[in-house]
Amino acid sequence: LNRYLKEMDEAIESTIGHATLIEQNLRKSSSNQDVAKLERRIGGFTRLINVHMVRVQRLTGMIVRMNAIRSGEIRSLIESEQRKIVLTDFFEDFVETLDDAPILDPDTDTDSSRPRLKVIVPSHLAVLAAPRFLTTVLRDILRNAIMYSMRGTPITIVAFAGSRESTIQIDISDEGYGIRASEFARVFAPFERSQQPQIISEFGYGLSLHLCKYEIEAMDGLMWFESQEGGGTTFSLRLPAWRNDSPSASSSSAT
Prior knowledge:
single chain, alpha/beta, Heat Shock Protein 90, 5-stranded mixed sheet, 3-stranded mixed sheet, 7 helices, 45% helix
């Protein structure tokens, strides 16, 4: 954790430095200075500021999530928010709002991820879960699927009832680089990242999947994955199916 707090401090220091450079450039600019040149220079600084601040925001968000898990607060948070989630409605809103907030690091290709997604969800499926936490988990899994696969390759989300219909399974599958068997132990470990060249070259903290697993388990669910190097990866979530006698904060459907 100290490593990432140090990284956050360096990002803030770098942002202050770039903001100072912008101020100095504006102060030194003259009325006859090439406006285009000044615009390019300041544009470069502002982009770096944006990259640093998005990363700091994401890291602080993960630290808040980790503290909730380690303190045990995650259970009470989920119990206060869990409710019936009709999956067709939920995923419709999930896909429509993907571009509202950046899902990828600013240094990564910023093309919309929506055209790559194929969602297959029967209309009758509903789970008992906390919508905010489920959304966060799915965004984290989707981020990995996008980052660690070739541009334009499909990503499929499929939901179906378990064999006894007391659970619902959600599979998120990509056709990406896959994970080496020797790296499997790192996947859910905190602050660990695969050492595969295609993965380590992308910016990341090695924390989000660790958080996702605990958050799904706090919703009385399970999370696991199957992968083959060069053959893509599937992350699976198993959540309690909604029943009329399910304990929840609200019996109304949520999206």
